[in-house]
Amino acid sequence: MREIDANTITPEVQAAWRGAPTPRMRHLLQRLVAHVHDYAREVELTPEEWLGTLQFLSGCARISDENRNEFALLSDVFGLTSLVDLLNLSPGATTSSVLGPFYVEGSPPLPLGGDLANDNPGEVVLVSGKVTDTRGRPLRGASIDMWQADINGFYGTQDPAQSDENLRCRQDCDDDGRYWFTTVLPAPYSIPMDGPVGSLFRATERSNWRPGHYHFIVRAPEFRSLVTEIFFSHDRYVEIDAVFGVRPELVVGVKPVAPGTALPTPLERAPVKRVDFDFALAPLRDAGAPQNG
Question: Does a structural domain hold residue 56?
């Protein structure tokens, strides 16, 4: 019988994973064991504290469903999502940012120049730009997936007063990689505070606010998909994002549309403001990390 104590248990647990099917999986599991065990030793973790942690994680599981992922939110507020993004940046490509807990696959298609604003309150904003490779060449066959909160800071999937498809779309770019549509400017909002992560924020008195933003997933054949966000320079929360998703290069100005300004056509609705942003994607063959999205 092996003698296991506080000093010998870590290598024993690491050895238990030696049969993992790939060297990479074995490395990930064994290093995870090492760091988690070191943390428990460093902080002198008590059984009561560990039981409380397990109950917290169980609460995250109970509140998660197809429209909400509390574990994604937990990763976001600990900065782990952003760290993984930053460790896997592709040179020359647009910086990635957090996916967030409210992404839903299957957004409704929107034609070029289509309108998402509909009857949502708020000023109508033209969102436009193009998708290129890292050398600035337009990507034919590119598409964007966009979703956002409304003027009250709620996503359609979390607000019974909205349709699940409100303020989200998928759009195929034109042959020059261009996209454009109209919508409303999203409001800043609190992260969801009705679950375990919210309880943790209240207990620690952390700021729970995110600046307003548009979420994007940008795709093109033979290129790395990009998960990112666009933020606005006027937003008072841009310096204290609760999930550490803001990057300086993702912050843009919201410009007024002056009378007589040339706008892309067609447009279903006339905007009063505009946000312009171009995305650059890295080729899959040059990507040194797994594909996002």
Answer: no
- Whether residue 290 has pLDDT greater than 50: no
| Angle 24-29-31 from CA coordinates, rounded to 5° | 95
Task: Reduce the secondary structure of 94-137 to three states and give it as a string.
Answer: CCCCCCCCCCCCCCCECCCCCECCCCCCCCEEEEEEEEEECCCC
pLDDT at 287 over 60: no
Residues in the chain: 293
Give the percent of the chain with pLDDT over 70: 97
Beta bridge partners of 281: 133
What is the mean predicted confidence (pLDDT) over 137-154?
96
Query: CA-CA distance, 79 to 98, in Å (whole number)?
Result: 10
Domain annotation covers residue 54: no
Task: Say which CATH number the domain at 101 has.
Answer: 2.60.130.10
Full domain range(s) for residue 273: 75-286
